[in-house]
Amino acid sequence: MSPAASSSSSSKQAMGPTKIILPDLVSHCNFPLRHSRHRKQITSETKRWLFKGANLIGRARDKFHGLKAGLLTSMCYPDAAYPQLRLCNDFLTYLFHLDNLSDDMDNRGTRSVANVVLNSLYHPRSYQSPERIGKMTRDYYRRMILTASPGAQRRFIETFDFFFQSVTQQALDRASGVIPDLESYIALRRDTSGCKPCWALIEYANNLDIPDEVMDHPAVRSLGEAANDLVTWSNDIFSYNVEQSKGDTHNMIPVVMHQEGLDLQSAVEFVGDMCKQSIDRFVEEQRYLPSWGPKIDRDLAIYIDGLANWIVGSLHWSFDSERYFGKDGRQVKSTRVVNLLPRRR
């Protein structure tokens, strides 16, 4: 071998892998995929709501269109009436754009944003904040409380509070370069995902009024946790490429590589197996639900179906959205090959 060839070979090894193969999660998920007929209408109305009072052009506008939040909402809440579906889409879009929406605040730290958002939720009629994020929070929540049950309202606020507490911890970990152990990461990620308030919106979207003792039952909580794990862990797989290009280590794949001593592809497969197990767990644990009588059982079945909609809807949306794979989502969905982006300098 010539010196030039040897140098080239060692250079390639130093570069590390150039691609990953995604696990086939879509084929492992057998839940029916449905869409709401209101998708186009909510997309245009939410766009008007999001951009109101802000001169969002160019990249911000492209980011909104590429996100395709209306598609995700229509698949996750397919049976919701238009007013409820519109609010769900407002919230999901707002959640994805939370960083951008808080740019106008004096202190852009997570605690400052949390203070404005949570005060707007806990005191929607008395708390007044001039920041855009506060106005938007009050607007969608005032619409929500018109029809949401007291339990759904409480669960929505409490879980959104947990979300802000966990993203604050996540920001501290990032700043200090901490890679948590897998168990700690899973516990934190269940809140940083933002899934839990979305589960409360399943109740709201379907006009459910399920008693607290039912929603707090271990079997029901376990189903919500399994759905959260699938949505969250699969998101870590799909978002890994973009995140690694920015040097972000708050992702399950680097956590697994660090703890288990695995190479990149093996870690992707490890997390993929965990995702498949979470789907299996969701199916299996429905067998252990007790009965609370015909009315509650019927409402609970609708809620659990809503969790299943989130599982299947989020998987398909991840390839339709441009958030993770740009314009190549359909190709990636077919081949499962992801070419790794170079690290930003």
Automatic annotation (TrEMBL):
Example GO BP: isoprenoid biosynthetic process
Single Gene Ontology MF annotation: terpene synthase activity
InterPro entries: Isoprenoid_synthase_dom_sf, Terpene_cyclase-like_2
Enzymatic class: lyase
Keywords, sorted A to Z: Lyase, Magnesium, Metal-binding
Keyword RNA-binding applies: no
Swiss-Prot/TrEMBL cofactor(s): Mg(2+)
The EC number(s) this enzyme carries: 4.2.3.-
Magnesium recorded as keyword: yes
Pfam families: Terpene_syn_C_2
Family of this protein: Belongs to the terpene synthase family.
Protein name: Terpene synthase
